[in-house]
Amino acid sequence: MNFDFSEDQKMLKEQVSKFLSDNCSLDVARDILESDKTYSEEVWRGLVDLGLTGTAIPEEYGGLGLGALELCVVAEELGRAAAPVPFSSSVYLGTEAIVKYGTDSQKEKWLPKLAVGELISTFALPETNSEPTEKNIKTTFSNGKINGRKIPVADGSCSDIAIVVVKNTDNDHIALTIVDLTSEYVKRNQISTLDPSRDHAEIIFENSDAELMDTGDEGWGAIENILNSAAVLMAFEQIGGAEASLNMAKDYALDRYAFGRQIGSYQAIKHKLADMYVKIELARSNSYYGAMMLNDGGADLKIAAAASRVAATDAYNFAAQESIQTHGGIGFTWEADTQFFYRRSQVLGLALGSSITWKNKLVNQLEEKNIS
Amino acid sequence: MDFNDTKEEADFREEVKTWLKENASKGEKVGGRYDAIDVQEDALSRARDWQAKKAEAGYAAITWPEEFGGLGGTAIQSVIYSQEEAKYNVPTGFFEIGLGMCIPTMMAWATKEQNERFVKPALYGEEVWCQLFSEPSAGSDVAGVRTKAEKDGDDWIINGQKVWTSGAHFSDFGIIVVRTDPNVAKHKGLSFFFLDMKSEGIEVKPIRQLSGGANFNEVFFTDVRVPDSQRLGDVGQGWKVALTTLMNERLAIGVPKSADYSSLTRAAKEVDLNDQPAIKNDLVRSKIADWYIQAEGLKYTKMRTLTALSKGETPGPESSIGKIVSAPKMQDLASFAMDLQGAAGIINDSEIALLHSIFQSQWLSAAGYRIAGGTDEILRNIVAERVLGLPQDVRVDKAVPFNELPSGR
C-alpha cells in the first residue's frame, strides 16, 4: 500500500512552499487586487526559475519531464498562497493541451518557450452565460483563421497564446487551435470579475491566424480530456486554499475573545471548523485517487477527476465562506485577508465548469460503469 | 502511488491465505452478531471454536506481544489478516470488545498474575468480556457515572445501573468504572474494576431500540461484591484507567456496511419522477454525486491510513473523520431514497417496498449510529480539540464536588 506522495515529491512541495512563503505573502495578492497589474511578475519569474512551468513538459522540449504528481504538490502550495499568477491557465491547461494534442512541430515551437516561461498560455473555452457544450461553441475555424468571442478567459490579458476551442466548419467537428494573442486581429478587453487578483479577459477573434491541433477523431472528447486533467490539478490548488482558510479561521478563533473566553472554545465555532476539516480531508482523499489516475493514465480518470473537483470545490467554497463567518465583522473588511480565499474559491470553483456540470459527469460515469 | 502490497506484506498475505484456505469454511454464514440479544448458544460455541483456531495460529491478536499470545506483528499485518478473513464466512463478533478494549486495559493495569489468568482464555474465546461504562445519566459525559462502590473490608460493594452494554448477556467478565468518592470533583472520585459477570446481584436486561431490534443491555448492580484485588489503578485513578479503554474504543467502533450511492443509483433507475426515471433528474444526480464523494472520500482516507501503517508510521488525524461522515450519510441517504418513492416511501414491508425496504430499515437504525460510540457532536469536539487544537469548552463541573453538581433527570 503506497497511497501517498513520494519523499521527492514532498521535498518539492516543501521547496515550493518555502519559496511562496518567502516571496508570495497575501500582500502580493493585495498588490494585484488593488492595482492594474494582471499578475505578479516577480512570483511568476521565481516559479519559472524553479523550473516549475516545465514540470510536466518532456525533457526533449526543455521541461523537467516529471509527472502529474509533481504538478499536484505545486498546485496545492499555489492555492495555499492564493498566488496571483497565471500558473493554472498556462501550465494545467495551455501547456497540457499542447503536450496532449500539439503536433510535433507545434510542440517544438511552443513547449520550450512555455517551459522557460518566455511565453504564457491559456485555454479559451466559454462563450456565453451558458456552460459550454459540444453544441453551443460558436467560434469557428476555417482556412487557418478563427472568428468568434470567448469570455471569460482566465489570464486572457497577460497570456501570449491561447488554446482556443472552435468549431471546424470544414467538418463541423469541435477542434483545438493555437492562437497568437498578440496579433492585431485579436482584441482583448480585461473584464471585472469576483477576483481581481487574477486576470480575466474577453477575447474577440476577427480572422485571427490559428494553428489547428491534432485531436484526431476525439472532437469534444479532447476538451473533456483536457478538463479532466486540469480538474485534478486544480483540486489540489483548491485544497491548498481551503486549508489556508481553515488555518486562518483557527488562528482567529484562538486569538479572539468574546463573553470572557476564546471564541474557539464555543461549540458553534468548533463544529464549524471541524466540518471544514472533514470536507478538506474528503477532498484530499478523492484527489489523491484523481492524482493516481492522472499519473497512471488510469481507466477511472473520468470519474476520479469529477469526484476530485466536486469535493474540492465544496471544501474550498465552504472553508472560505465560513472563515469569514468565524472572523465576524473584521473578516468582511477590505483590509482583512479572508477576501482573497473567498474570491479565489469561486473563481477556481467555476473555472472549469460548475459543480452541477461536474456532478452530472460523475453520475454519467456511474451509469456507464453500471454501478448498482 | 499504488495500492500494492510490499514484498513483506505480500508474503504475509500469502501465508494468511494458505492458512485460511486450510482452516476456514466458505460455507453458509454461521454464528451471530455479538450485539444480537437473541444470540444462540451454538453460534457462540462455533465462534469460540474459530477463535481458538485463530489464537493457536497466532492470528487472533497479531499486534500483541508474544508474551500475551500475540504474533508481535504490525498493524498492517492485522489489517491484511482481516481483509482476507472477510472473504470467508467465519463467525466473528463476540470477542471484539473484550480483545479490542477490555484486555488491552488489563494488560496496561492488571498484575502479572491476573494477566496470566485472564488474557489467554479471552484470546482463545473461552471467556467473553464486556465494557460497563455508560449510564442513564452518563452518556457523552461518561465521567459523570453514579454507580457507586463502597469499601467493605477487603471488598467493594457496587450499587447502580449501567446501560448500552453490548454482549453483557453472554459475557463472563466485565470492566467497570464506578464512583468511589462523591465528595470530590467528577473526574477525581472514580475507580476502575474488573468483575465476574456471574456475580450475585448482577441483573442483565435487553433494551429494545426504536428500530425494533434489541442489540444492547442494561445491567443492574445490587450489592455486588468485588474484591479489592480486582481494582485497576489506584482508588480515585479510575478516569485515567478509563482513558486507556476509550483510546482503544476509537479503533473498535465503526458503522456497518450500509446502502450507499450504488443502492441509491439503483433505486433512482427503478422509480419514476415526473414520468421519467428519477436518475434523469438533476437534483437526484446531484445528491448521488454528493454521497459518492463522501463514500469514496472515506474509502481513500482509509487507504491513506493503511499507507501510514504500511510504512510503520502513525496514521494522521484524518482517520478520525470516518463516523462523522458515515453515520449522517446513512440517515440522509436513506431519507432521500424514501423521498424518491413518494407516499410509498413509508412502507417498511420488505416484500412490498423498493429494494426490500433497505432504505426504511437503514433510516430507522441510522438514528442510533449517530449516537453510538460518540455522538456526531462529541466527535466534532474531538476533531476540533485534538486535531485543530481548539480549547476545551468551559467546564462548570471542574472544581465542584460531584455530589454538589446540579442534575436533571
Describe this structure in words.
The complex is a heterodimer of chains A (372) and B (409). The model of chain A has no long low-confidence stretch (mean pLDDT 97). Chain A contains eleven helices and nine strands. The radius of gyration of chain A is 20 Å and the shape is globular. Chain A has three domains: 7-115, Orthogonal Bundle (Butyryl-Coa Dehydrogenase, subunit A, domain 1), CATH 1.10.540; 121-212, Butyryl-CoA Dehydrogenase, subunit A, domain 2; 220-369, Butyryl-CoA Dehydrogenase, subunit A, domain 3 (Up-down Bundle), CATH 1.20.140. Chain A has 372 residues and is α+β, with helices and mostly antiparallel strands. Chain A has helices spanning 7-23, 26-34, 41-49, 68-80, 87-101, 104-115, 220-255, 267-296, 301-327, 338-351, 355-369; strands spanning 121-124, 140-142, 145-154, 161-168, 173-180, 186-190, 200-212, 257-258, 261-262. Chain B has 409 residues and is an alpha+beta fold. Chain B has three domains: 7-94, no CATH class; 129-252, Butyryl-CoA Dehydrogenase, subunit A, domain 2, CATH 2.40.110.10; 261-371, Up-down Bundle (Butyryl-CoA Dehydrogenase, subunit A, domain 3). In chain B, the strands form three sheets. In chain B, strands 1-4-5-8 form a four-stranded mixed beta sheet. In chain B, strands 2-3-7-6 form a four-stranded antiparallel beta sheet, with no helix packed on it. In chain B, strands 9-10 form a two-stranded antiparallel sheet. In chain B, strand 9 and strand 10 form a beta hairpin. In chain B, helix 7 packs parallel to helix 9. The longest helix of chain B has 29 residues, at 282-310.
